[in-house]
Design a protein that fits this description.
There is one protein chain. The chain is an alpha/beta fold and 185 residues long. It has one domain: 3-Layer(aba) Sandwich (Rossmann fold), CATH 3.40.50.300. The protein has seven helices and nine strands. The strands form two sheets. A five-stranded parallel beta sheet has the order 2-7-1-8-9, with helices on both faces. It has a four-stranded mixed beta sheet with strand order 4-3-6-5. Strand 5 and strand 6 form a beta hairpin. The structure holds adenosine-5'-diphosphate and guanosine-5'-monophosphate. Guanosine-5'-monophosphate binds next to strand 5, strand 6 and helix 3.
């Protein structure tokens, strides 16, 4: 069985973080903690959910070549640390929770990466989930929803799509993908 680089992507509020947490309950994966310039949400921890950096620190790290990929969206930088992916795959499978542009950039560096786009049952449900999460202002939420059409338009470039309607069913489908991919030569 091989270790895989599993990239969970999809629109904001679709359930990436929730499903990532479910997969992480097993001992199969390490999570690649990204860097961001956005402020921590209530309950988030530096070094666990993200490394929280100022724009200046983030730009220094870009110049140093620390990021495997990075992108600016929703008014903030987000980036995957090379050190959290390179070298680690020889020991364990790695999960990334990153946006659609980042996912496609990762595939360029790691053609074997397994790209999964999570899809909402419909856009109204996505909006309800973002409202329910209550972690953004109404304006920030609108900003996130404005990107959905663009993101969903990229699904043809992904290896798999999984509809996150019933959470347990989506988790089951993800595990099937993981098992199939780990067993692939
Ligand atoms: P993302 O990481 O993609 O932005 P989250 O994992 O934060 O999304 O999920 C957004 C909100 O939707 C959270 O409040 C989460 O509890 C909820 N949620 C996730 N998956 C489901 C689901 N299948 N059914 C109902 N609510 C869900
Ligand atoms: P949030 O602010 O909700 O935590 O994340 C916003 C978006 O940024 C989500 O789609 C999330 O997957 C994405 N994201 C998180 N980390 C990274 C990263 O390292 N690179 C890229 N490109 N996107 C990321």
């Amino acid at each position: 069985m091989r270790n895989i680089l599993l990239v969970l992507s999809g629109p904001s509020g679709v359930g990436k973080g929730t499903l990532k947490e479910r997969l992480m309950r097993s001992d199969e994966f390490v999570f690649s903690v990204s860097c961001t310039t956005r402020a921590p949400r209530e309950g988030e921890q530096n070094g666990v959910d993200y490394f929280y950096l100022s724009r200046e620190e983030f730009e220094k790290r870009i110049a140093r070549g620390d990021f495997l990929e990075y992108d600016e969206h929703f008014g903030n930088y987000y980036g995957t640390l090379r050190s959290h992916v390179e070298g680690r795959l020889s020991e364990k499978s790695v999960i990334l929770d990153i946006d659609v542009v980042g996912a496609l950039n990762v595939k360029r560096c790691y053609p074997d990466a397994v790209l999964v786009m999570l899809l909402p049952p419909d856009v109204k449900t996505l909006e309800q989930r973002l409202i329910g999460r209550d972690s953004e202002t109404a304006a920030e939420r609108e900003n996130r929803l404005a990107r959905v059409r663009f993101e969903l338009g990229k699904q043809g470039e992904f290896d798999y799509t999984v509809v996150n309607d019933d959470l347990s069913e989506a988790e089951r489908r993800l595990w099937k993908i993981v098992t199939d991919e780990k067993n692939r030569e």
